Every structure is written in C-alpha cells, then in structure tokens.
Amino acid sequence: MSASRLVPPLDQPFIASAEAETTRITEVEGRPLPGPVLLRLLAATPSMVLVETTFAAGGGSRPHSHADHDSIVYVVRGRMRVTIGEQSWEAGPGDAFQHRPGVVHHMEALEETVTVEVKSPPIRTW
User: Fold this and answer.
1) Contact predicate 98/71, CB 8 Å
2) Pairing state of beta strands 80-84 and 21-28?
3) CA distance 77 to 121
4) Strand-by-strand arrangement of the 49-55 sheet
5) Distance between CA atoms of 66 and 49, rounded to whole angstroms?
6) Is 0.70 topped by the overall pTM?
7) pLDDT along the chain (126 residues), means of 10
C-alpha cells in the first residue's frame, strides 16, 4: 500500500456537515467515471475512512477492484445497480454491500443516489 494513497486522520473528533471536505471526482483507481460524483470526507482515523458519495442518475463506476482495502457501502437514498464479482443486485435505501480486496465490482445509479462508505485501511481511491 502506497503511503500517498492513505487518507490522513482528521484532527477533530466531530465534523459538522457544513465543514466536511467536498470533492468532485471524475475517476476511481485511475479509471474515468461515467459522470462526476460528489464525495464528502466525513471522518478519518488511522484505520478507516468514512465518505459520503452522491451519484447523478446514470453515474457510478466502471468495473474495477482494489488490492489494498475493504469497503462497506450503505445506501442512504436513491437506487443503484450493484455488481460484485458475477452477481448483481438493485440496492435502495437501507441496503448495504461490501467488496473485498481483489474483487471486481461496479455500480450504476438508477436515479440520484447517496451512499456512505467505510474503507479500511483509509485508502484514497479518488
């Protein structure tokens, strides 16, 4: 794992929504996204990072994998098609999914969708 990919821990124990760092990302793991995604950095410790992502309808990610971290994703609102390995699901509010290191996965927002994701260790894929 490259130290340059690690998200540094945030110094404050509480981050108000208005203070969260927001980034418009156009790629994941060096692969272009079908459309821009808004990513908000909500929390980061030495062992994990929590981000919120907002996908426009039709947005998402192309098939990719991560060799250096686990991810757990929770759908807050909206609907998305999730493919992990050879399986696909339609995920909506309250649904969660995970992808482990080395597993090819991708997502497509069927409507505007907001998710929260924990990555451990805290790897920057954007």
Assistant:
1) yes
2) unpaired
3) 26
4) 21-28, 31-44, 49-55, 113-120, 70-77, 96-99
5) 15
6) yes
7) 86 92 93 92 97 96 93 98 98 97 96 98 93
